[in-house]
Write a structure and sequence with these properties.
Number of domains: 2
Radius of gyration: 22 Å
Number of strands: 0
Largest sheet: none
Shape: elongated
Order of helices and strands: HHH
Structural class: mainly alpha
Length: about 90
């Protein structure tokens, strides 16, 4: 962690800061905060591909059995297939 950053928690690491805020309310420290400006540059892009309804149902069923969302399961399968095709 950079030395020029301040922290209400007086912690030495991001992990300790996270643990502090897991057990404290920012409203209790509101007077110690200050406004900041920052930019968020999200690089991810979502694209949708249509699936036949019966196929989508099967994917959802398998995903639920594995404790995953259908989106994650499909991404894993597509990544696997691309690796196979690239080999």
């Amino acid at each position: 962690m950079s030395a020029n950053k301040s922290s209400i928690s007086q912690s030495d690491s991001y992990r300790e800061i996270g643990e502090f805020w897991d057990t404290h309310e920012v409203t209790d420290y509101w007077e110690e905060t200050e406004p900041v400006d920052f930019e968020v540059d999200i690089q991810s892009e979502v694209r949708y591909c249509a699936l036949e309804p019966a196929l989508a149902d099967k994917v959802s069923q398998i995903a639920r059995q594995r404790g995953l969302s259908a989106e994650i399961l499909i991404n894993l399968w597509v990544q696997e297939k691309i690796r196979e095709e690239s080999a």
